[in-house]
From TrEMBL:
<feature type="signal peptide">
    <location>
        <begin position="1"/>
        <end position="25"/>
    </location>
</feature>
<protein>
    <recommendedName>
        <fullName>Peptidase S1 domain-containing protein</fullName>
    </recommendedName>
</protein>
<dbReference type="InterPro" id="IPR043504">
    <property type="entry name" value="Peptidase_S1_PA_chymotrypsin"/>
</dbReference>
<keyword id="KW-0378">Hydrolase</keyword>
<keyword id="KW-0720">Serine protease</keyword>
<keyword id="KW-1015">Disulfide bond</keyword>
<dbReference type="InterPro" id="IPR001254">
    <property type="entry name" value="Trypsin_dom"/>
</dbReference>
<dbReference type="InterPro" id="IPR033116">
    <property type="entry name" value="TRYPSIN_SER"/>
</dbReference>
<keyword id="KW-0732">Signal</keyword>
<keyword id="KW-0645">Protease</keyword>
<dbReference type="InterPro" id="IPR009003">
    <property type="entry name" value="Peptidase_S1_PA"/>
</dbReference>
<dbReference type="GO" id="GO:0005576">
    <property type="term" value="C:extracellular region"/>
</dbReference>
<dbReference type="InterPro" id="IPR001314">
    <property type="entry name" value="Peptidase_S1A"/>
</dbReference>
<keyword id="KW-0964">Secreted</keyword>
<dbReference type="GO" id="GO:0004252">
    <property type="term" value="F:serine-type endopeptidase activity"/>
</dbReference>
<dbReference type="GO" id="GO:0016485">
    <property type="term" value="P:protein processing"/>
</dbReference>
<feature type="domain" description="Peptidase S1">
    <location>
        <begin position="49"/>
        <end position="280"/>
    </location>
</feature>
Length: 330
């Protein structure tokens, strides 16, 4: 599979003329930022994993690739629902639904499974200039027939209240290995740490507003990052054998792994209700349970949704007002 030559040319043109000629300019309020230009990978939509490693079989079974006139990553949530970034499927206010989804393998050149797209839904408040609400759902035309250790949906968080600051997380995708470098054939992964929200907000202050719907991650030595190829891909918190999807790769500054600028992800915990409600409205209800913002209002701890869909056999302990225990039997 290849990225459209027209889009590659457009991205190259943007890099050559829209960035290099404005090295000392003051960041503009409309979302065009220089000298540290925000990189959402609108054209090639290819982010890169810097300082990562080739993922092994079954390590990221929820990873999918979206490809057509663009290339992005995504996260499998069920047999027919994928979570990705809105900027992957929308450009210039136009929704792109003419693409396919590949999954079940590590190689970018040969996916064991491929499906056309039935429906694409972006967040109604998505803003291309500010990157707010950079989230979308993709509904498969042909659902996954069987889950295996190579194809398995990710877990959504069970609580709105986690901030994950300082936690070790993993980003993945078919990202470039260096800025403007070659795109790898094999799926890459990188271990990062969730950055303090306030420091990330301060870092991007002159470029874009980092709100509560965003989460930042990087490493202190800035030798690792997600950047061009992983747009729309997963940011996952691993707890033993249990993995929880906490972010969607959204944007960063041009260059990637730039000191002082962690990559920015859409914070999944802020969109749990939107994800569940939107998928169900599209006829693809998720097996999932989340705790309300105030689960113990009036002394009654309540939950919304159906049953929690947990990957692999394990115990989850959720502390919100009481300890809720979920055990998966498969």
């Amino acid at each position: 599979m290849t990225v459209s030559s027209n889009r590659v040319f457009a991205w190259s043109f943007l890099l050559a003329f829209g960035i290099s000629s404005t090295c000392n300019a003051v960041p503009e309020p409309n979302g065009r930022r220089v000298p540290l230009v925000l990189q959402r990978n609108v054209e090639s939509k290819v982010s890169k994993i810097v300082g990562g490693y080739p993922a092994s079989e079954g390590e990221v079974p929820w990873q999918v690739a979206l490809y057509g006139q663009f290339f992005c990553g995504g996260t499998l949530l069920s047999s027919d629902v994928v979570l990705t970034a809105a900027h992957c499927v929308m450009s210039g206010g136009q929704l792109d639904t003419d693409f396919k989804v590949g999954y079940g393998g590590l190689s970018l050149l040969n996916f064991p499974f491929e499906t056309a797209v039935k429906q694409v839904i972006t967040h109604e408040a998505y803003n291309e200039n500010t990157f707010q609400n950079d989230i979308a759902l993709v509904i498969f035309e042909n659902p996954v027939q069987n889950f295996t250790n190579l194809v398995y949906p990710a877990n959504l968080p069970v609580s709105h209240n986690e901030d994950y600051e300082g936690e070790e997380v993993t980003a993945s995708g078919w990202e470039r290995l260096s800025f403007e470098g070659p795109q790898p054939e094999q799926l890459q992964a990188v271990q990062l740490k969730v950055s303090p929200q306030e420091s990330c907000k301060n870092a991007y202050m002159a470029i874009v507003d980092i709100g509560n719907t965003m989460i930042c991650a990087g490493v202190e030595e800035f030798s690792k990052d997600s950047c061009q190829g992983d747009s729309g891909g997963p940011l996952v918190k691993v707890i033993g054998n249990y993995s929880e999807l906490i972010g969607i790769t959204s944007f960063g500054v041009e260059g990637c792994a730039v000191q002082g600028y962690p990559s920015v992800y859409t914070r999944v915990t802020e969109y749990l209700e939107w994800i569940v409600d939107t998928a169900c409205a599209a006829g693809s209800c998720l097996e999932y349970e989340y705790v309300t913002d105030d689960p113990c209002e009036d002394g009654d701890c309540t939950t919304n949704g159906a049953t929690l869909n947990v990957n692999h056999s394990q115990l989850i302990i959720l502390q919100s007002c009481i300890y809720l225990f979920f055990i998966l039997v498969q």
